[in-house]
Amino acid sequence: MHVSNKYNVPCSRPRHLALVVAAVAALGSVTAAADTTVTVLRIESSSAEKRYYEEVVAAYEAEHPDVNVEFEYLANEAYKTRLPTMLQSSQRPDIYYTWGGEGLRDQVDAGFVRDLSEPMRDGWQDIYPESAVRAFTLDDRVYGAPLYATVVGIWANTALTEQAGVDAQAIKTWEDFENAVVALREEGITPLVVGGQDGWPLHFYWGSLVTRLAGGEGIEAAKSGDNSGFNGEPFVRAGEMLQSLVELDPFQSGFMATSYERASGMFGDGEAAFHVMGDWDYLPSKQRSVSGEGVPDDDLLFVPFPEVEGGEGNAQSFGGMNGFAVTRDAPDEAVDFLRFLLNADNQRKAAATGIFVPVAEGSAEALETPYARRVAEILEQSAFHQVFLDQALGTSVGATINDISGDLAQGVVTPEEAVARVEEAWQFR
């Protein structure tokens, strides 16, 4: 932190006092020359996104030569595992990536997170839609700032779907999706690739189905214990539908031993026709492919997750509202940098690169890729955006949801047993 100290020492003071003051002044000048370091912890991201952060940091440091900003990246699972411990230590980051929801609440309740309500009210939150700020608002206080929204859908390789006579753009319902899986398997093409090892990619199936069936209101009702809580019919049916899909043999061999990163690269290599994943996988799937090029853009589609007959949440979307929080003891410079990173100008620059779909108002106009524009359309048309259940329901419940999603896919639990475990985790969180 830049410190400026000025001392006016009268000549009449004793010489030894003057020497003491001079020494203090000298120390002050050393402090003034010292940099404040702001550390930012982020989940591992694409090289394009890292370059974007580097450019933002360079611009900020040019304006603030007394501040040094450092980004650190951890793989998804390592991030989730290490973050709680890091927040409790003296090595906690000043700024860290967050999905909001009950997971953020746990961190707030533990006293790890800085309240951003006041700086947000100072014109900061005006650039974001209300729904984006709401994801980081707890008890009317704001504890995070939004960066971008994500949507779970189906990445489709049309070069493969067309071989099987499947029109990927025509997939609208769950029945359409299952029929496509059957047609692909009959043609000898692996329908779906999934990183079952990590849990959360399979949760994208169960969580998306829950959102389609119950909708945001149904999920909130379950949290309140209404309609049998998480033992309710929509949650059971979501498990039944996932297991019915698995009976069609949709996944690659050894899917439970495959990481998300590997599955992403496999889709990029053309080893499966579909990948149910977030919109962010556009660049990673290319970079993780053997060629480094991935599926050619002309053969790539992003299809909304299918609707379910009679579903209460068919007009809703499922995904993330991602942003950053500031830790309790972080310097004020951390708040200042975060505000700079997430301002409208920088979000428009991010949109132009195609690395994600920012939430700052007006930034969507800068989106250049058809996939990013499609995601923006889905979000705009969505009546409600449900945050990932493994984040929205908190760390312990989220871990249970990821576990039961894998167990459902392997057929080692019934849908009723799976939701009973979720309900128990929610009650004892």
TrEMBL record:
It comes from the Bacteria. Residues 1-34 form the signal peptide. It is found in: Periplasm. Keywords: Signal. One of its GO terms (cellular component) is periplasmic space. InterPro entries: Bact_solute-bd_prot1, SBP. It holds the Pfam family SBP_bac_1. Belongs to the bacterial solute-binding protein 1 family. This is Extracellular solute-binding protein. It comes from Vreelandella sedimenti.
